[in-house]
Amino acid sequence: MKHNLLIGLFISALFFSSCENKQKVDFLVKNAKIYTVDDEFSIAEAFVIEGGRILEIGTASSLTKKYKPYSELDAEGKTILPGLIDAHAHLYNLGLKLSRVDLDGTKSFEAVISRLEEFQAKYPDAEYIIGRGWDQNDWESKDFPTKDTLDHLFPDVPVALTRIDGHAMIVNQTALNKAEIDESTEIFGGEIQKKNGKLTGILIDNPMSAIRSTFPKVDKDAQTKALQSAEEIAISLGLTSLVDAGLDSEVIHLIDTLQQDGDLKLRIYAMLSNNEENIREFLNSGILKTERLNVRSIKVYADGALGSRGAALKQPYSDHDNHFGSMIIDLEDFQTLAKRIHKSEFQMNTHAIGDSANYVVLKTYDDLLKNDSDRRWRVEHAQVMDDSDFSFFDGENIIPSVQPTHATSDMYWAEDRLGKERTQYAYAYQTLLKNAGKVALGTDFPIENVNPFYTFYASVARQDLEEFPEGGFNPNEKLSREETLKGMTIWAAYANFEEEEKGSLEVGKFADFIILDQDPMEVEENKIPKTKVLSTYIDGEKVYELK
């Protein structure tokens, strides 16, 4: 009996000694199917987190022998991905949109009017009615609306309704008066539409700025609410980082303050909007980089959008005689700006939709960067390409940043705009990948739905949520599931100069990850959009849990 007692005491002593020798860590995640997205695209079972970063990856048995976690999570075999990165989005605009008239999904101009009337009934004292989301391509009549009905129903309050793509606007006469726009007004880069010499209320691209300058100022409380409301949506869908593609200095500094105070968790790569005040401030002060904010790029618009026929094409639109779209920045101004940015450490990220705009951007980039290395200037959208221009992309100096759900939204009318031959070189993600070696994938929300699993599905299936068309739109341009996940994680991080700190679950990187209810790498293709995020972690902290 005494002998057995001594053996028991000895074993207990060894156990407690072993526990004391274990390294204390913050968090252990075990029994998961973890897509690390490392260079080998390896799958792991467990990892340890310390100080908000990945300390070690391995098996549950090996890590539990080595570490004593303050807390641990048994994932029970569920799938874990690195936190998803939206490579092109508009977080702040999404937040603003939540407090304005939502016109998404309207199937007629009458439906637009109905929503405006509902909004005015709810907010009778609104000093300006602002909305966004209409798309005449979804209506029985594909023509742009006119302001007549708005003038009749809303004679005393200005109304400004932005098209879903952000590149066209319908306004009433009161809004035109407030912005001092009349039949004689001329603004470069876009169009103030007229019919029989009279304003129709349709503005395309640059003239919209004159309207926006008359909007009521958004105070800091409203800005904060917009950012936090949009963040809540983003993290619930598995985003831990995103690129906000065009912000003013004021909003960027507010984001920095909110993040430093712990009131905003998302990591944000903020592109500066192209205006002199923003550029002068940041080119003088240099890159602003914290663990949650990165400001080292300038967002420039080369042309408009295809849906509003503002994209600059080499040949006329197939559905509009002798109309080529237009550049919305003067060529000399664009090249001068590019040279100015080239002299700095900043990245130039240019919106280019039409093949003419893409050529101008790519040729300008190539002329400036051909003797450089690792500049990573981006072409945002690269939507309609001339076959001869794909070779400009090299993945080191010039990177394509694309949004797969644009292809599945636009496919119903893209061929009408472009004709069959040009359409085969539009939304050409696999061709872009073959030339660049990497593609950064995003959504462009709120133009498209925020859900990154819609992006994933559109990328691999090239179908809408109704599984149309059979086989996919231009199916040779599909990306594989592995390519798609890389485009939403490590390649998106690379496009932001952030691949050493996020985009994969590897030792030393941020412990940003999501737990899913199914494995999007394995489920049937049509089930990918139904993927639910069970929880989202940033720096190893749970910031969202599905209720």
Q: What does this 3D model show about the protein?
A:
By secondary structure, the chain is α/β, with parallel strands linked by helices. The protein has 18 helices and 25 strands. Strands 8, 15, 16, 17, 18, 19, 20, 21 and 22 form a 9-stranded mixed β-sheet that branches. A 6-stranded mixed β-sheet has the order 3-2-7-23-24-25, covered by helices on one side. The protein has a 6-stranded mixed β-sheet with strand order 9-10-11-12-14-13. α3 (91-97) packs across α8 and α11 (331-342) runs parallel beside α12. The model has no long low-confidence stretch (mean pLDDT 94).
What count of helical segments does DSSP give? Answer: 18
Report the major sheet.
9 strands, mixed
Beta-strand segment tally: 25
Mean pLDDT: 94
Multimeric status of the protein: single chain
Distance between the termini: 54 Å
Low-confidence stretches: none
**Structural class computed from helices and strand pairing:** alpha/beta
Radius of gyration: 26 Å
Strand content: 15-25%
Shape: globular
Briefly, what is this?
With 547 residues, the chain is α/β, with parallel strands linked by helices.
Question: Can you lay out the helices and strands and say which pair or pack?
Answer:
Elements: H1 2-21, E1 23-30, E2 33-35, E3 43-44, E4 46-50, E5 53-58, H2 60-66, E6 67-74, E7 79-82, E8 84-89, H3 91-97, E9 101-102, H4 109-122, E10 129-134, H5 148-153, E11 159-163, E12 168-171, H6 173-178, E13 190-195, E14 198-205, H7 208-212, H8 220-236, E15 239-247, H9 249-260, E16 267-273, H10 276-285, E17 288-289, E18 293-301, H11 331-342, E19 347-352, H12 355-369, E20 377-381, E21 398-402, H13 404-410, H14 414-423, H15 429-436, E22 440-441, H16 452-461, H17 481-487, H18 490-495, E23 513-516, E24 533-538, E25 541-545
Parallel strand pairs: 1-6, 2-7, 8-15, 9-10, 10-11, 15-16, 16-18, 18-19, 19-20, 20-21, 21-22
Antiparallel strand pairs: 1-4, 2-3, 4-5, 7-23, 11-12, 12-14, 13-14, 17-18, 23-24, 24-25
